[in-house]
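G., the chain you wanted modeled:
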Amino acid sequence: HYQPGHGYTSMGETKEADGKFFNSGNKFSKDRFLPVGPMHVETEQLIDITGNKMRLIHDHTAYPEPHDAIIVRADVVKTRQVSDMNDFPNAVKSASDSRIERNGKKVNVYMTSEAPAFSLNEIPVKLGDEVTITITNHDEVEDLTHGFGIEKYNINFVINPQETHSVTFKADKLGMYWIYCTHFCHAL
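Predicted structure as tokens:
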């Protein structure tokens, strides 16, 4: 059984509402999916409301407590597939700009990623250092995303084409830790 919690119509929050589709965010889908723990999945149902009788078009699982959604036509969505590096003031503009700067216990690392490698192979730091790593993805190919992970530090993020991202952490664990790409674009 279901308990509809929230409903949305296509283009319903615009002045161009078209009355074509309704989305029902449902709670309590106990009869539909294999329970894999104490919380059951919930569902979203897309319904065609253009005719005299509603017709279910799509039915899928959803994260718990589906709230607030907007259904828009595809032509309304304007996406950017590759960012502009100049939108990131801290961008590392070329691999030759890669460097490690130390100021007392603060270490700033500037590096690039370009398939299939990072511009720095090693980042030596001392126990107790505050480390900030800034990475710019130099690939210009749509969907050539790089990941960045450091084991045992709970660091894992992605850098889309031409974007720059950074992370700051305290090097509070003695040892050698691998830095690796978590979004593989080439064979290991």
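The two ends are 47 Å apart (CA to CA).

Shout if anything looks off.
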